[in-house]
Each structure stands twice: as structure tokens, then as C-alpha cells.
Amino acid sequence: QVQLVESGGGLVQAGGSLRLSCAASGRIFSWGWYRQVPGKQRELVAGITSVGSTNYADSVKGRFTISRDNAKNSIYLQMNSLKPEDTALYYCKGWSGSQIYWGQGTQVTVSS
Fold it and tell me: Which entry of 7, 16, 32, 105 is 20 to 30 Å from 92 by CA?
């Protein structure tokens, strides 16, 4: 069983930046950052494959950057030019073979 632990969330003013981290206790091949607000479905924010290919939700393109450090079994989400609508609970998700793992989430709140 692989555990994922997110960190780096917090309160920031609109236009500011935050960097989220997610560390895994075991090897993860592909990763994703998701977010969820109350009453809405969890949505994909950004993903990165085992070979480093990335994809982003249209709403964050040009503002967010996902990266990975294989040696540390970790991923990161650099979030710039944050907007109030980015406020959500952010989760990391990892795939290892047929297994899927989720972190516990880290809250990001952007004030206007």
C-alpha cells in the first residue's frame, strides 16, 4: 500500500503563488493533481506521465506547472497568478500498475 502526502496549501491573495508537493511512500508511475469544491465533482488540474508528458485543465494553462522528482517519489504543482476560483481542496493521485492511490488533500484558499 502506497501512501501519498500532500503539503503546501494555504491562504494567498489573488495574483499570488503557491507550490504544492506530494510525496509517495513507494514508486508511482503516473501522477495527477485534482481539486474539489463542496457540491462539485473532483476535477483534473494537471497530470504527468511516467515519461514526463504533461496535460492541464484549460482553466490553469499558462499559470500552473506540474513537475516530478522520481528520485524522491514526489510531484509538485507550481501555481502562479492565483484566482479566487482556484480555491479548492487539492488532491494528488498516483497510479502504480493497476493500483490507484489518493492523498488526503491540502486546502488552497485564494482571497480577492
Answer: 16
